[in-house]
Amino acid sequence: MKQDAIIRFEGVTKQYDGLVVLDDVSFEMEKGKFYTLLGPSGCGKTTILRLIAGFTEPTEGTIYFHGQPVNHVPANKRQVNTVFQDYALFPHLDVFENVAFGLRVKKMKETDIREKVAEALQFVNLKGYENRRIQEMSGGQRQRVAIARAIVNEPEVLLLDEPLSALDLKLRTEMQYELRELQRRLGITFIFVTHDQEEALAMSDQIFILHKGKIQQSGTPKDIYDEPVNRFVADFIGESNILPGRMVQDFLVEFAGKRFECVDGGFQPNEQVDVVIRPEDLEITAPERGKLRVQVDSQLFRGVHYEICGYDENGNEWLVHSTKKAEVGEEIGLYFEAEAIHVMRVKDDGDEK
Ligand SMILES: Nc1ncnc2c1ncn2[C@@H]1O[C@H](COP(=O)(O)OP(=O)(O)OP(=O)(O)O)[C@@H](O)[C@H]1O
């Protein structure tokens, strides 16, 4: 175990009425990092948060905080606070009293409460809003009140369950910066749940990708984007061209009816593989200069690039992001470096093939 692991799951399974929601999940989280649980609806993200918070217990396996088992430790005895999707603020109380709530429950002295609430509101840039009613606050401000209410308790871990999903895109992007910055300043562990892959890539130190009750991959945003371990991850994170292929030998892979040099090794000769090439790693050339020939089927202007879709001679679909324009019906060449080819073992990702 790492020295500063604050939370550890060991073989954690969670079932509801016989339905396996988490299946033998193990991981560690360190102090002071920004973690994101990412995955499609129903993959078990909220269940992990509920297990960490102590709202529910594992069916099997053990959860440790600082190396101590906590399966039976109640929620109010854990150094964990949660910011919920709907914020769960008290509409009849003003901002100050919403933030002070947990401290009053703990029967803290009034002077200490004033000091701590002021500090928490300062942290989320809401100084001066103490006497406002919740109804008079915007969506982004309510979000910040909810965060202040959680951090005022000085938790070791802050759980955030899709906290930005109610906000419009512009505010959401602003709050992404704010939350990330807040986490850095506070230095506490944030565990953030989202099903938005761009949000996860932008905010996290480490991402856990969940699917069908299993962690498919964990790593830094860059690791996961550059080196997805299976089809599910490659497809879920960013846009990808994913093709079935065969490893001829190390550093030589066959797909789309041709052989290409690549930088991946350690495979069995003739091993079946999946090949990923990101759309931005494809370059449009004259047909005779490309590694593949593609007939352009559609084109969309996306502001920073054109999104071009076409088919090669074998009927494989190709998505290309390019600053160069192409004409529908035109034959183009696609060039890519050996480094752009990412070869993955055909691993079971829980999906029916
Ligand atoms: N208390 C419960 N009783 C029975 N089934 C539950 C319960 N809580 C969750 N589930 C089921 O467990 C599965 C995982 O739920 P969970 O809320 O963890 O998913 P999620 O990844 O957070 O999804 P979403 O993004 O939609 O919130 C779902 O199929 C859900 O219906």
UniProtKB/TrEMBL annotation:
EC number(s) on file: 7.6.2.11
Quaternary structure and partners: The complex is composed of two ATP-binding proteins (PotA), two transmembrane proteins (PotB and PotC) and a solute-binding protein (PotD).
Keywords: ATP-binding, Cell membrane, Hydrolase, Membrane, Nucleotide-binding, Translocase, Transport
Nucleotide-binding found in the keyword field: yes
GO molecular function, one term: ABC-type putrescine transporter activity
Pfam families: ABC_tran, TOBE_2
Family under the similarity heading: Belongs to the ABC transporter superfamily. Spermidine/putrescine importer (TC 3.A.1.11.1) family.
InterPro entries: AAA+_ATPase, ABC_SmlMolc_Importer, ABC_transporter-like_ATP-bd, ABC_transporter-like_CS, Mo/tungstate-bd_C_term_dom, P-loop_NTPase, PotA-like, PotA_ATP-bd
Cellular component terms per the entry's GO annotation: ATP-binding cassette (ABC) transporter complex
Function according to Swiss-Prot or TrEMBL: Part of the ABC transporter complex PotABCD involved in spermidine/putrescine import. Responsible for energy coupling to the transport system.
Reactions catalysed, as given in the entry: ATP + H2O + polyamine-[polyamine-binding protein]Side 1 = ADP + phosphate + polyamineSide 2 + [polyamine-binding protein]Side 1
Top-rank taxon: Bacteria
Gene that this sequence comes from: potA
Signal peptide: none
Domain ABC transporter: 7-237
Enzyme class: translocase
Lineage, top ranks: Bacteria, Bacillati, Bacillota, Bacilli, Bacillales
Name of the protein in question: Spermidine/putrescine import ATP-binding protein PotA
